[in-house]
Specification:
Blueprint (H helix, E strand, L loop, with lengths): L1 H5 L3 H16 L7 H44 L5 H20 L6 H28 L6 H20 L4 H17 L2 H19 L5 H72 L4 H35 L17 H38 L3 H43 L7 H20 L4
């Protein structure tokens, strides 16, 4: 049954459903015209009002999830393209809210509050974007760039003029990097303490007064830039908390709106079913049987369409908070648009899982390399090397998974070219080119086998 349903498009399913219902209800066409007009009015209300409200509510929830997801990705990786994605999702969410406002059964106050909370979230995010741009979207921009330049200048000047203080400078850079990687006020205090000791050591050095003054000025520049960077991180943290609070205010309202829309759909459907049953009681026993058959068929058809959508909504909702391993079950090569959408959702979940694993392994690799460089003993170097090997093994495993996916796609391309070969006489050369490209890609994957 699932296999047959997946081979039908949504329009074909609806067409079959209407065809069956039409055939069934041909036996009761003698019903009064007023009853027919009442039934049509009920269905029109269900689709144009109740259905529209449910559709707009679902669109609002979906856009909110995407908007928050893009904002979270920007906080993890400040890509300059992500703010535009956040604003685009906010615009789409606003459009969905405007569409909901046009439904006459919606409380206007709810719509106004949704719009104001969405704008508040966007304003909070814009403030975070501004703060990040001041800090620097990469290590060479903004406050990060100024801090990095002062750190390198201090390090080079100490190495050239006071080699005896290189150990203190290395300790200073290590605590600085600990703060940049992990955060925490403890590392800030450590940096400030080392800066104080380094200043005293420069004052007590045998250098000339002019050299000591220049080195002390470099230390002050370093401390000032580091303090500015710390303050900017604190500001970003405060703004992020404010944005999260705005999101926490809008999310329950969106969920309540969707729940109300679903409940209204259920109530309206139940009322319509009840009215249909009451009308059917006035008809002959064959009319009753026909009505029951039509209801059962409609429920089955609705279940086949709605269930995958519900599973996709649950998976997308989990994707905003976690990295689930479950996927929506879909048959191979479906023609159903919803099943095709489920494949895209599964692909999105796979991409997020792959990115998460790669990012974690890359961070482990970076920390291990850092620890290996600053290791003071053989034991520490061994531990860093072990951590580095484990991180590289994780990245290799991720590459194996990606290689398997590419191999499967190559096989699908070859199968598709084999099916098309001979069917389209005017495109034989294109089909052959597709097949050769797939074979070449498969051969390259074998050459680049990470195993």
């Amino acid at each position: 049954m699932n296999r047959v349903a997946s081979r039908l498009r949504i329009g074909e399913k609806i067409g079959i459903g209407f065809g069956v219902v039409l055939i069934v209800f041909l036996g009761i066409v003698w019903h009064d015209q007023s009853v027919l007009r009442s039934s049509l009015a009920d269905y029109r209300y269900l689709t144009e009002v109740v259905g529209a409200r449910q559709t707009h509510a679902f669109a609002i929830e979906s856009r909110l999830a995407r908007m928050r997801g893009a904002a979270d990705r920007f906080l993890m990786n400040p890509d300059p393209r992500l703010p535009d994605a956040v604003r685009a999702e906010a615009d789409a969410m606003t459009a969905a809210i405007d569409g909901l406002a046009r439904v006459d059964s919606v409380d206007r106050r709810t719509v106004d509050r949704l719009g104001s909370l969405t704008q508040e979230f966007l304003n909070r995010f814009s403030a975070i974007e501004t703060a990040w741009r001041r800090k620097g979207l990469d290590e060479n921009a903004g406050l990060q760039g100024a801090f990095r330049a002062s750190a390198h200048e201090l390090e080079e000047r100490v190495a050239r003029e006071l080699p005896a203080l290189q150990t203190q400078v290395l300790q200073l850079r290590r605590r600085e990097k600990d703060y940049l990687l992990r955060g925490g006020e403890g590392y800030v205090q450590m940096v400030e303490g080392i800066l104080a000791v380094l200043t005293l050591s420069i004052d007590a050095s045998p250098l000339g007064s002019e050299e000591r003054a220049h080195l002390s000025a470099l230390v002050r520049d370093y401390g000032r830039n580091f303090s500015a960077l710390v303050e900017q991180d604190r500001l970003i943290g405060e703004l992020t908390e404010a944005m999260n609070q705005a999101a926490e205010r809008v999310t329950p309202l969106v969920e309540d709106t969707l729940a109300e829309a679903n409940a209204l759909m259920e109530r309206s459907s139940a009322e319509l079913a009840k009215t249909s049953v009451e009308r059917a009681r006035l008809a002959l026993s064959i009319a009753i049987a026909a009505t029951l058959f039509g209801v059962i068929f409609a429920m089955l058809l609705t279940y086949r369409i709605v269930r995958p959508v519900r599973l996709m909504v649950e998976l997308l909702d989990r994707l905003t908070h976690e990295n689930p391993s479950e996927r929506v079950a879909v048959p191979a090569d479906p023609r159903d648009e919803i099943m095709a959408m489920a494949i895209s959702v599964n692909t999105l979940a796979d991409h997020k899982s792959t990115f998460d694993r790669w990012w974690r392994d890359a961070m482990r690799e970076a920390i291990a390399l850092r620890d290996a460089q600053v290791a003071g003993s053989e034991v520490e170097r061994d531990e860093a090397a072990k951590e580095l090997r484990e991180a590289l093994a994780g990245k290799v495993e991720t590459l194996r998974v990606l290689q398997g996916q590419l191999s499967r796609e190559c096989a699908r391309m070859l199968e598709a070219s084999a099916r098309l070969e001979g069917r389209h006489a005017g495109h034989d050369q294109d089909i052959q080119a597709l097949r050769r490209a797939a074979e070449t890609l498969r051969e390259l994957l074998e050459v680049l086998d990470v195993a």
